[in-house]
Amino acid sequence: MTQHFDPIPSPHLCIVSIHSLVEHEYNDIQRTLPLAKRIEAEGLLKNPPIVAQLEGEQRYVVLDGANRTTALAQLNYEHCLVQVVEYEPPQVTLSTWHHLVTDINLESFTQEITNVNDIDLHQSDLLRARAELARRELIAYIIRSDNKVLAVSSHHRRIHDRNTVLNAMVDTYKEKGGLHRAVADNMDEARKLFPNVTALVIFPNYEASEVMILARDGELLPTGLTRHLIQGRVLRVNYPLSELKSNESLEKKNVKLQEWMQKKNVTKEVRLYAEATYLFDE
């Protein structure tokens, strides 16, 4: 029997102005400075950030790698090597991370969120909360460590306004305790991994168009929300930073990049792994 697979497109690598890169969510500032020091010491850009071009513009939304682009900007680089992708399946699948919050007093955590303007916090049950979030009647729901479920709603309907409220909610806890990413709303499993868990905060699934329009309009989603699965992600490029930092024009740098890539292909240094892979040196 003949098997058919979705083709994985050849990687589109190019060098762009760092000022043309637009973030879509708040990045982890605590990681940026150590990363900048490491990049500068190594003299290489190991993994290019993943970007999607805004329609009709010469701007690119950073889907993955915002800490790298921020680090390069802090190091005064004018240009950045990126991988441009089509922001749609099968190349990119968008899902959502949830927040696993630890080391905050449970009642204080709840009260801080209750005090956020334009938020309504009311008790619910897990099944109802899941259904209401799927219908976008909620902006989130919370499972407390005592297993109480709280539905989080807002009267706003515009995505920009709802995003403002969501950021205000996340701001109440993101720097006061531990913040970890989770993929499910299972408190029992969370408690096994983090006995000091305070709560799970569960967010809705977003559409790529929502991510792009918020980024285009200069608004950022809360940190650690979007989860992008990339088919054909480029890793271990190890591109010399000296090539990015040179005084040559952007056009000349891209010509040299293409020559560099052709040489890599000729010498068979580029290899595609189509299977799921574990990396132990990230």
What can you tell me about this protein's structure?
The strands form four sheets. Strands 9-11-10-13-8-12 form a six-stranded antiparallel β-sheet, with helices on both faces. The chain has two domains: 12-92 and 228-266, Conserved hypothetical protein from pyrococcus furiosus pfu- 392566-001, ParB domain; 98-202, no CATH class. With 282 residues, the protein is of the alpha+beta class. It contains nine helices and 15 strands. It starts with 11 loop residues before the first strand and ends in a 16-residue tail after the last helix. A hairpin with a 4-residue loop joins β10 (140-144) and β11. It is 33% helix and 24% strand. The protein has helices spanning 29-42, 66-74, 106-114, 126-134, 159-171, 187-193, 208-216, 241-245, 250-266, and strands spanning 12-17, 21-23, 44-45, 50-53, 60-64, 79-84, 92-96, 98-102, 120-124, 140-144, 149-153, 178-182, 197-202, 226-230, 239-240. α1 packs across α2. The longest helix is centred in the C-terminal third of the chain and has 17 residues, at 250-266.
